[in-house]
């Protein structure tokens, strides 16, 4: 009886250990290098809600539970980005709180919209990869909507040599966050929505178009700050120009052709056979701009 009890205890301990190994906790951490950008001369509000500050992605694959705690790093990075991009950036927890702040020219609310990853096992064992898609809602100082930006960050990390891959996925995750940050910092000043802020003017609420008008069709469109993969077009095979009348065709003997008869030549020469088309080159694979991101 005592031996059976020990056996049951041993099996329970083993299951607990194995159960613990089946969970991967991803905790991205790091600091953004000092951006070399010219600050926009504007005071803005930045909203990081409690939900965004505690954002956690949970997913199960092949009996392994993955949990990526993105919220703390998201909040830290958002503060660094907007304080680098604007002369004055105030952090708030809600849009309602931000619109009460005097002197704001705009309000931004960055949110994580999607998190996806591929483990080293899924990429063939050489690296792991992470993609994070963000959405930034932009409001006028009174809290009314102005525009929405989307951007995607891409990151990669080494394949794990030991352990469950949590550390390597955390490296890839923070690389994706930095990629998105770099995209925003470098590309935002060139957007139309940034022009009033560059002139130290407040953003104006978006005017809602009349239903059925041409403007209504694009009311839900968002501005994308993203390096889009380049798909090379399928090459078009060009037909070799047929040889001119009287000239030797490709591959024909070098001897001169027989002279034409003295009678008036026909209005048009007989059609020459089309030479075989050389095989079309294989288009290169998709080229993804490196951002680290591409992206914004």
What do we call the CATH homologous superfamily of one domain?
A: Lipoprotein like domain
Strand element count: 9
**From N to C, what is the helix and strand string?**
HEEHEEHEHEHEEHHHE
Give me the CATH fold name of one domain: Double Stranded RNA Binding Domain
User: Which blocks of ≥5 consecutive residues have pLDDT under 50?
Assistant: 1-20, 227-241, 243-257, 261-296
Largest sheet: 6 strands, mixed
**What is the strand content?**
25-35%
Overall outline = elongated
CATH class of one domain equals Alpha Beta
CATH architecture of one domain: 2-Layer Sandwich
Helix content range: 25-40%
SS element count, helices: 8
Span of the ends, CA to CA: 65 Å
Strands ordered across the widest β-sheet: 5-2-6-7-8-9
Mean pLDDT: 77
Q: Indicate the structural class.
A: alpha/beta
Radius of gyration: 31 Å
Q: What's the structural blueprint in terms of helices and strands?
A:
Elements: H1 2-21, E1 23-26, E2 40-47, H2 50-53, E3 56-61, E4 64-69, H3 71-85, E5 86-92, H4 95-98, E6 106-118, H5 120-123, E7 127-139, E8 145-158, H6 166-187, H7 195-198, H8 214-217, E9 223-225
Parallel strand pairs: 1-4, 2-5, 2-6, 8-9
Antiparallel strand pairs: 3-4, 6-7, 7-8
Helix pairs in contact: 3-6
């Amino acid at each position: 009886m005592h031996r059976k009890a020990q056996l049951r205890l041993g099996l329970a301990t083993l299951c607990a250990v194995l159960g613990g190994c089946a969970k991967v906790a991803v905790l991205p951490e790091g600091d953004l290098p000092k951006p070399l950008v010219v600050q926009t001369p504007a005071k803005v509000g930045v909203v990081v809600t409690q939900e965004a500050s505690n954002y956690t992605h949970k997913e199960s694959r092949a009996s392994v539970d993955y949990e990526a705690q993105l919220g703390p790093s998201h909040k830290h990075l958002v503060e660094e980005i907007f304080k680098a991009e604007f002369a004055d950036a105030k952090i708030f927890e809600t849009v309602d709180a931000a619109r009460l702040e005097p002197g704001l020219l705009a309000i931004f609310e960055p949110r994580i919209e999607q998190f996806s990853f591929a483990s080293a096992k899924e990429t063939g064992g050489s690296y792991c990869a992470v993609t994070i898609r963000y959405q930034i809602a932009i409001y006028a100082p009174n809290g009314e909507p102005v525009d929405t930006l989307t951007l995607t960050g891409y990151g990669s990390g080494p394949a794990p040599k030991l352990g469950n891959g949590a550390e390597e996925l955390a490296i890839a995750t923070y690389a994706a966050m930095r990629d998105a940050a770099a995209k925003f910092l470098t590309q935002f000043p060139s957007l139309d929505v940034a022009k009033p802020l560059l002139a130290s003017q407040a953003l104006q609420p978006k005017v809602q178009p009349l239903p059925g008008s041409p403007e209504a069709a694009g009311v839900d469109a968002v501005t994308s700050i993203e390096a889009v993969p380049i798909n090379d077009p399928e090459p078009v095979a060009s037909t070799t120009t047929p040889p001119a009348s009287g000239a030797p065709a490709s591959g024909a003997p070098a001897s001169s052709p027989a002279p034409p008869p003295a009678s008036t030549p026909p209005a048009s020469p007989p059609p020459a056979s089309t030479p075989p088309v050389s095989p079309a080159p294989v288009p290169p694979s998709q080229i993804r701009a490196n951002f680290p991101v591409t992206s914004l």
